């Protein structure tokens, strides 16, 4: 059975891996000269370091992603961290959100009660709302933003700014006033109430190429698949509800059984469909992520990561020879030029970390990803249910799982769902 997979990001690679594992013959076509889509690595010849376009953080609740990494033999390439997140304020005061490993879920209650960034009243309110999320499965607030939901549930301004906003912007890459309360609650349930390890941070040990790109590639090729980079899909010829032909920048394919589209929603508009039009492809608002990698002569940071409060630079990830500063939902920052950005960043870092001095930096890379993720806005659950009515076309991507934001997990989960659908189709057809 021959399957063509279009798009070599996480969705396309994972779909190709799952399908190869099930014995399908896969041809993967990727428009750009590299694999990885929005999660890729770059080699910096000046510093001899390979770094990622942006820090990618996985969570223990990324079950599909963890299954995928196991299949390609990448378990050793990630490390799971105990819950110990330093929250730091501009006057360099650190407090931790920290949980012991045992006694789940009581350990989480203890973590919130000891979260001294906010006062006692705020901690109790956070706890009350967390318990409500766990036990109340109602989906009534279809059109409510996270902010409205927090206010309705008596959250203090302090807890909103220093706890909920940090969680929301980190997990959804979107501000609390824009994000859907329903999607946020789904995410909270997955992180905190889906099992003992759901809330743990998982980090790539080196970079994304080592973690999953090369290993996926090897898996696909060693199972008889083909990977063509710099080959863009241009046109699909559809007859009687079936894709018969696809035309790329290199050739025409007409000998295949099914096609998987693993491309973002906005990429559909550049493909010509003849004989049939795809309907209802959602038009999303997108949200940028800014990453600034600072290559250091000497590294003064002691923790693996820090959450920075009261600034637009949200996280600092410590990689040893360099640190990555991540700003999510970075609409404002992304418009600034690099000189202004760096001057603002250095002033911030010097405030937050008296141990930091800009003279420690010997090289800088600024990575601006304008369409990093879609905004999981109100109404997303209602409006985005999208399925192709073409029999041998399967559509995946981080935007195709309505109840989740755009993440590695939604990309891989969509690939898992597609591979099951394709397997069922051909099993049912007895081929
Ligand atoms: C800076 C940054 C940081 C992030 N951090 C996190 C994080 O910490 N945790 C997390 O879970 N998620 C994170 N994400 C989100 C995550 O990277 C994405 O959700 C995921 O990579 C999406 O994968 P995808 O395969 O669905 O789409 P994409 O990665 O966009 O892949 C689609 C691929 O299709 C190709 N393509 C498009 N059109 C065609 C065509 N016509 N023909 C052939 N190929 C085509 C594109 O070139 C691309 O390679 C982050 C994203 C960014 C940008």
> Over all CA atoms, what is the radius of gyration?
22 Å
- How many helical elements? 11
What's the CATH class of the largest domain, please? Alpha Beta
Shape: globular
Output the strand order for the largest sheet.
8-7-17-18-19-16-20
CATH topology of the largest domain: FAD/NAD(P)-binding domain
Q: What is the distance, rounded to the nearest whole angstrom, between the alpha carbons of the first and last residues?
A: 8 Å
Helix content estimate: 25-40%
- Quote the beta fraction: 15-25%
Largest sheet: 7 strands, mixed
CATH homologous superfamily identity of the largest domain: FAD/NAD(P)-binding domain
Strands, count: 21
Name given to the CATH architecture of the largest domain: 3-Layer(bba) Sandwich
- Which small molecules are bound? flavin-adenine dinucleotide
Coarse structural class: alpha/beta
Question: What ranges have pLDDT less than 50 throughout 5 or more consecutive residues?
Answer: none
Domains (count): 3
Mean pLDDT: 94
Give the tags.
single chain, about 425 residues, alpha/beta, FAD/NAD(P)-binding domain, Guanine Nucleotide Dissociation Inhibitor, domain 1, Polyamine Oxidase, Chain A, domain 2, 3 domains, seven-stranded mixed beta sheet, five-stranded parallel beta sheet, 11 helices, 21 strands, about 25% strand, globular, binds flavin-adenine dinucleotide
Task: Walk me through what this model shows.
- With 431 residues, the chain is α/β, with parallel strands linked by helices.
- The chain has 3 domains: 2-75 and 205-284 and 377-428, FAD/NAD(P)-binding domain; 102-196, Guanine Nucleotide Dissociation Inhibitor, domain 1 (Orthogonal Bundle); 286-374, Polyamine Oxidase, Chain A, domain 2.
- Helix content is 32%, strand content 25%.
- Strand 17 and strand 18 (315-318) form a beta hairpin.
- Helix 1 (10-21) packs parallel to helix 11 (408-428) and helix 2 (63-71) crosses helix 11 (408-428).
- Flavin-adenine dinucleotide (FAD) is lined by residues 6-12, 29-32, 37-39, 53-54, 56-57, 232-233, 262-264, 267, 271, 289, 291, 369, 372-373, 397-398, 406-409, 411.
- Flavin-adenine dinucleotide binds at residues 6-12, 29-32, 37-39, 53-54, 56-57, 232-233, 262-264, 267, 271, 289, 291, 369, 372-373, 397-398, 406-409, 411.
């Amino acid at each position: 059975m021959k399957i063509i997979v279009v798009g070599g990001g996480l969705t396309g690679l994972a779909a190709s891996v799952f399908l190869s594992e099930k014995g399908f013959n896969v041809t993967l076509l990727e428009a750009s000269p590299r694999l990885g889509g929005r999660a890729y690595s770059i080699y910096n010849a000046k510093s001899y370091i390979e770094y990622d376009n942006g820090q990618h953080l996985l969570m223990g609740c990324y079950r599909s992603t963890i299954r995928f990494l196991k299949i390609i033999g990448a378990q050793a390439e990630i490390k799971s961290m105990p819950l110990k997140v330093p929250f730091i304020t501009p006057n360099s005061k650190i407090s931790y959100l920290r949980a012991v490993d045992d006694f789940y879920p009581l350990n989480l209650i203890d973590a919130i009660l000891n979260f001294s960034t906010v006062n006692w009243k705020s901690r109790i309110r956070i706890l009350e709302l967390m318990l409500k999320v766990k036990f109340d499965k109602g989906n009534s607030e279809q059109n409510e933003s996270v902010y409205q939901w927090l206010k309705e549930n008596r959250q203090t301004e302090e807890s909103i700014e220093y706890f909920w906003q940090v969680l929301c912007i980190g997990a959804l890459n979107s501000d609390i006033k824009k994000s859907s309360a329903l999607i946020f609650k789904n995410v909270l349930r997955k992180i905190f109430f889906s099992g003992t390890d759901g809330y743990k941070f998982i980090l790539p040990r080196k970079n994304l190429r080592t973690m999953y790109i090369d290993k996926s590639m090897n898996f696909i090729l060693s199972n008889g698949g083909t990977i063509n980079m710099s080959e863009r899909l241009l046109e699909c010829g559809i007859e009687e509800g079936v894709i018969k032909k696809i035309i790329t920048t290199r050739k025409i394919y007409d000998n295949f059984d099914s096609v998987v589209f693993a491309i973002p929603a906005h990429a559909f508009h550049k493909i010509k469909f003849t004989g049939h039009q795809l309907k209802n492809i959602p038009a999303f608002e997108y949200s940028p992520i800014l990453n600034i990698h600072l290559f250091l002569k000497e590294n003064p940071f002691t923790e693996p990561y820090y959450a920075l409060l009261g600034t637009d630079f949200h996280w600092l990830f410590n990689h040893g020879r360099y640190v990555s500063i991540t700003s999510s939902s970075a609409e404002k920052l992304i418009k600034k030029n690099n000189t202004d950005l760096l001057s603002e960043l250095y002033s911030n870092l010097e405030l937050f970390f008296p141990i930091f001095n800009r003279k420690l930096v010997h090289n800088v890379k600024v990575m601006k990803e304008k369409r990093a993720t879609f905004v999981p806005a109100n109404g997303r659950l209602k409006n985005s249910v999208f399925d192709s009515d073409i029999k041998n076309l399967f559509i995946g991507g981080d935007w195709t799982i309505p109840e989740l934001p755009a993440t590695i997990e939604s990309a891989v989960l969509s690939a898992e769902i597609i591979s099951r659908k394709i397997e069922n189709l051909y099993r049912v057809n007895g081929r």
